[in-house]
């Protein structure tokens, strides 16, 4: 009887080990190829995402992430200025490919129409001359416009630099 119980115990331990290995493998694959996490290191998205918040998202190459970001999506991109700042950057999609964007009196105009932006931390200061966004590029801005380095400084970014779309921020 003792031998029978020991064999069952070893079998149970082996089964638990197999499930644990499958779980760790699945977690690795999800974190490496499907989902991602990042920490917001600046206040450029303040109002929506406070500094030091964790964000989680889905990588853009997946069908679930949709083919291209939409206006209003919060995305993570590779640093547009890697010589100054190497960490990924989190910004909101404001302008889409082939659109014209201009900022007058702090108001963003897309193809001549004012953009309603309820998520802004405060009214933006400053103007921006008309820019035509090239195909395959996006114009990104932080929600804390008066404290954000974004496409107003580095121009429209190529869609291939987008790592993923933020799904959850806390």
Averaged pLDDT: 85
Give the CATH H-level superfamily. Answer: Umud Fragment, subunit A
Rg, Å, rounded? 22 Å
**Which class best fits the helix and strand makeup?**
alpha+beta
Structural domain tally: 1
Per CATH, the class reads: Mainly Beta
Measured distance between first and last alpha carbons: 54 Å
Number of helices: 2
Write the layout of secondary structure elements.
Elements: H1 2-34, E1 35-39, E2 54-59, E3 74-77, E4 89-95, E5 100-104, E6 107-110, E7 113-114, E8 128-132, E9 137-141, H2 151-154, E10 157-158, E11 162-169
Antiparallel strand pairs: 1-2, 2-11, 3-4, 3-11, 4-9, 5-6, 5-8, 6-7, 9-10
Question: Can you describe what's shown?
Answer:
The mean pLDDT is 85. It is elongated and about 80 Å long. The protein has helices spanning 2-34, 151-154, and strands spanning 35-39, 54-59, 74-77, 89-95, 100-104, 107-110, 113-114, 128-132, 137-141, 157-158, 162-169. The protein has 170 residues and is of the alpha+beta class. The strands form two sheets. A seven-stranded antiparallel β-sheet has the order 1-2-11-3-4-9-10. It is 22% helix and 31% strand. It has two helices and eleven strands; from the N terminus they run αβββββββββαββ. The protein has a single domain, classed as Umud Fragment, subunit A (Ribbon).
Salient structural properties:
alpha+beta, seven-stranded antiparallel beta sheet, four-stranded antiparallel beta sheet, 2 helices
């Amino acid at each position: 009887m003792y031998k029978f119980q020991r064999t069952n115990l070893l079998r149970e331990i082996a089964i638990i080990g197999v499930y644990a290995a499958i779980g760790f493998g699945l977690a690795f694959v999800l974190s490496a190829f499907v989902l991602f996490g990042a920490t917001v290191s600046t206040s450029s998205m303040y109002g929506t995402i406070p500094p030091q918040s964790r964000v989680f998202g889905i990588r853009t190459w997946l069908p679930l992430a949709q083919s291209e970001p939409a206006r209003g999506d919060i995305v993570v991109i590779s640093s547009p200025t890697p010589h100054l700042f190497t960490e990924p950057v989190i910004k909101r999609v404001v302008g889409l490919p082939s659109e014209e964007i201009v900022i007058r009196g702090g108001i963003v105009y897309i193809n001549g129409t004012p953009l309603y932006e309820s998520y802004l931390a405060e009214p933006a200061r400053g103007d921006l001359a008309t820019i035509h966004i090239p195909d395959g590029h996006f114009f990104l801005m932080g929600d804390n416009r008066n404290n954000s380095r974004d496409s107003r400084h580095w121009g429209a970014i190529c869609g291939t630099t987008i790592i993923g779309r933020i799904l959850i921020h806390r």
